[in-house]
Amino acid sequence: MSWKPIIAGVDPSTEGLRAATVARELASLSDAEYHFVHVTRDVADVPASFHLPVDISELRYRVSEQARQTMEHALVAELPDVELDRLEVRLGTPALGLVHAAQDHEAGLVVLGRKRHIAPTRWFGGSTVHHTIRKIDVPILLVQRSLLRGCRILVPVDLSYATGPTLEMARRFRDILHAELMILHVAEPLPFVPDATLQLDEYAHYPAVVEEFERHIQATLNDNGELAEIRRGRASKVIRDLTTQWNADLVVVGSHGRNWADRVMLGSTTEQLINRLVTSMLVVPVHSPKAATTTVMVRAGVDQTT
What we know:
It is elongated, with a radius of gyration of 21 Å. Helix content is 40%, strand content 21%. The strands form two sheets. The protein has a ten-stranded mixed beta sheet, with helices on both faces. A two-stranded antiparallel sheet has the order 11-12. The protein starts with 5 loop residues before the first strand and ends with a strand. 37% of the residues are buried. By secondary structure, the protein is an alpha/beta fold.
């Protein structure tokens, strides 16, 4: 399967330039097109009560050209042989600019550099990574460092409908990087329901989880040295611990597309990993199936429904 174009969201920061480097490397390995996209503030967004002394269209042009010159200088310093015609400068907010760029190029992957933000900064000041993940419908690679051939890829799966598409994307990265791949399922503690007469039996539940994992994951491992493991505990912590223990270079997770309010109020395993994991991450958006009774069967990374 050929790769669709790759978009790198870039800025003059170390993280932004790292995204450009990784995007170009992946494009070379997968024989895909790639584009660098830099989004800068649109002067037309200033409050209407603020009267600018110059023509808006002229000012927008100047801002765009200044941003292009800054980015070209930064890219040439990082990638001396860079093809500058691959750089696009767009006006607006970074998240929406990347969304529109991905749509225009029919991209299959967006690459962003990981920047550390404390929680108040993320929720009140904003973060391009968080806003983009909430808005875009394309896999997003958050890079901490370059992905080298022979690296290790960890894929946590929850045995839901998201497992098939998540594994498929992870295996595509495994193939071009000649990487080791480990599939992980975390059996979390069953919730305690206050005032309920009948409580869920965790000891009876766990063997059923193991059986499902063996049937849908272990029985379908291919001959490329894939590993599979099931552990008990809280998903976010177990994934972080195994990432460190196994020295994973990339963690691939499926995002179920819960709405913005859900993520702000309740959080999710994916959101927690984005906030706390210190390695590169690939977030794969997955839409829920139309039928609630759909059963996901994973065979060699292909999502089959019955």
